[in-house]
Specification:
- By secondary structure, the protein is α+β, with helices and mostly antiparallel strands.
- It folds into three domains: 1-204, no CATH class; 219-256, no CATH class; 263-365.
- Helix content is 46%, strand content 17%.
- Strands 1, 2, 3, 6, 7, 8, 9, 10 and 13 form a nine-stranded antiparallel sheet that branches.
- A hairpin with a 3-residue loop joins strand 2 (72-77) and strand 3 (81-87).
- Helix 5 (263-285) packs antiparallel against helix 6, helix 5 runs parallel beside helix 7 (330-365) and helix 6 runs antiparallel to helix 7 (330-365).
Length: 366
């Protein structure tokens, strides 16, 4: 019986927290750098949402009050930060000011919706007091901080030099653009970012050390008497210190690594992920749209090349997590591997159904 399992659960929890807190601190530090430091450094060099292509999301024609112009949301997305600029419309037929709402569509007629953290309209009693609301989102891989800039309405339509900044620290201006540090935390995304970067920290630092320890336990026993060598020894000795049996030297010992646990599941993950990318490209090429909001965001920001890189990076991350879990608890690792195959296969099956219906149903109707 493992002596560590015999100790009280509180002591095991305390030992786990003692090992985990440095990685959690590293996750917090990297999360803040990706949300605050990196976007600011890129903005200083002129890289960021200001140079990204703009897409215009406008309010659907649910009313005939406007014909040429409609309340719109200008969207600029970059790798580490996004801008959402909401602008209202005032018509001659109705003195009220109309702002964008949840029912938006892009220039291609596809339905769009702003993230819940984006301010698209002021309170109803203040709808005519503002002429523009800018919302900035920052963080990677999830947008975990937001900032706002509210432009008040002025007599005669005069331009305001400085808007009212909310939930941010105004650093200055570069090339006519305000440099803001977002301070409004988005709780769910912030927690996911911290967990993600803490996991990366563990994989980079503690992961190799744990694998090395388990490798020594696996290869450090005498084949004759089962005596284990000292785990602190770097090289495998030529003779067993207990029974004196000669050990066969292993010239390629440095290249040995623990065997992967679920090779068949990993092959299926790679296969269905590749099919997902290929079928997604086929559907988009035929005029379809991506219904997965995260995949649509990646495709809009970086194109199909970025979607392929994101898909396979996510796949490799899942495989690493499965291996880590399998070395701690095999059942949990196997469950995650099987679940990953099922989740990756579901959009492939749905894409095949859509392609079959698109091919054969119109022909049957003709």
């Amino acid at each position: 019986m493992d002596p560590r399992r015999a100790e009280p659960w509180r002591r095991r929890l305390a030992r786990w927290i003692a090992k985990a807190w440095p990685h959690l601190l590293a996750g917090v530090a990297v999360t803040l750098f990706m949300a605050w430091g990196l976007p600011m450094l890129l903005a200083v060099r002129g890289v960021g949402p200001s140079g990204a292509p703009m897409s215009l999301w406008h309010r659907g024609p649910s009313s005939e009050l406007w014909s040429d112009h409609a309340p719109s949301l200008s969207v600029r997305r970059s790798a580490f930060s996004d801008w959402y600029i909401a602008e209202p419309v005032t018509t001659a037929l109705d003195p009220r000011t109309y702002w964008p709402d949840a029912d938006l569509e892009d220039s291609g007629g596809h339905a769009r919706s702003a993230p819940a953290s984006v301010v698209v309209a002021p309170p109803d009693e203040q709808s005519s007091s503002w002429t523009r609301i800018d919302t900035g989102l920052a963080g990677w891989p999830f947008r975990c901080f937001a900032s706002e800039a509210w432009y008040p309405a002025t007599p005669g339509g005069r331009e305001v030099e400085l808007p009212e900044f909310r939930w941010n620290a105004h650093v200055g201006m570069i090339a006519g653009q305000h440099i803001l540090v977002p301070l409004r935390p988005l709780a769910g995304a912030l927690a996911l970012d911290i967990v993600f970067w803490a996991t990366v920290s563990w994989c980079v630092t503690a992961g190799p050390r744990e694998f090395r320890r388990r490798r020594r336990l696996k290869y450090g026993q005498c084949p004759a008497c089962g005596h284990a060598t000292d785990a602190r020894e770097v090289r495998r000795p030529e003779h067993c210190s207990e029974c004196g049996a000669r050990w066969t030297p292993d010239p390629l010992g440095f290249a040995h690594a623990p065997e992967m646990h679920f090779q068949n599941a990993y092959v299926w993950i790679i296969f269905v992920s590749s099919l997902d990318i290929m079928l997604t490209w086929k559907i988009l090429d035929r005029g379809g749209i991506e219904v997965n909001p995260l995949a649509a965001l990646v495709i809009d920001a970086w194109g199909m090349q970025g979607a392929i890189a994101f898909k396979f990076a996510l796949m490799m991350w899942v495989i690493v997590v499965c291996e880590v879990l399998a070395r701690l608890r095999r059942g949990a690792g196997k469950f995650l591997a099987v679940t990953a195959v099922a989740v990756s296969a579901s959009p492939v099956a749905w894409s095949l159904v859509l392609l079959v219906l698109h091919e054969f149903v119109p022909a049957a109707l003709e």
